[in-house]
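Dear Dr. L.,

I hope this message finds you well. Following up on our conversation about the binding site, I have prepared a predicted three-dimensional model of the protein together with N-(5'-phosphopyridoxyl)-D-alanine. For your records, I am including the exact sequence and ligand specification that went into the calculation, followed by the structure tokens. Please feel free to forward this to your student if that is useful.
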Amino acid sequence: MDQVYLNGSFLPAQQAQVSVFDRGFLLGDGVYEVIPVYKGKCFQLTGHLERLQASLDGVRMKNPYSNSQWKNLLEELVELNGSGDQALYLQVTRGVAPRDHVFPEGVTPTAFAMSSPLQAVPEKYKTEGAAAITLPDIRWQNCNIKAITLLPNSMLKQQALEAGALEALLIRDGYLTEGAASNAYVVIDGTIYTAPKDEKVLPGITREVVIEIALANNMPLLEEAVTEPQLKQADEIWVSSSTKEVVPITVLDGEPVGDGIPGPVWQRMDALYQQYKQNGAV
Ligand code: PDD
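The resulting structure of the complex is given below.
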């Protein structure tokens, strides 16, 4: 997956160069998207492009391209990289300017996209589930913006890894917000809870699909945050993201979640999610 896109050109990754004065490099001043590609087709592209626009609006950056321009260039990149299953990554930074905290005037944004192999979700997650730990949500107040400034997320994820866990579930003001790189769900007495869309969570595209599936199949789901004690008593916990789909968490802070195996509500959701993917929903 050698071909990348940079500011209007497709070229081998080794030849792609960005200035050291790029505000993405110096200030983390940019936003991004990660889009799964199944059998050469971008999954939920419209949702991802809408969220990209929302992130750009959130940081007062102009979108360098229309949605159809994005669609064309991303589809071309997928094709250049051999189609099949891929994980597309795109980012837009405010551009190249002398280092200064305030926004530069009249600068062209840097637009970059690359693709990598989409790793199949490990079978072990499906049969046994994965572990998570709880950590304080140390991130900023605009978690709805998909900013490239990921140092807090990276630190949280590293702590999870060092504790032998897949994900860190984040607690803010006593409530579960989301994972360090995923949205989170809790099942209590058959009802699925996920935090509402506000500035405390990223409006996940996978989360939208989960909600759509739940609604279409009469699975009770509430967009309500749960407290830390509710989380610890949950029958089931799941996390979701574009690259990992919906993963059951069966161990939380070293203790089994519910029966300690992927629960029946997750089983149903995962089966429906796989069907949804198969149907080629775009
Ligand atoms: N991350 N919340 C956070 C903080 C995330 O970083 C992600 C995804 C999600 C799930 O969003 P989506 O369903 O749209 O992928 C929620 C991506 C995959 C990443 O940073 O690599």
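In brief: The first strand starts at residue 3 and ends at 6.

With kind regards,
A. P.
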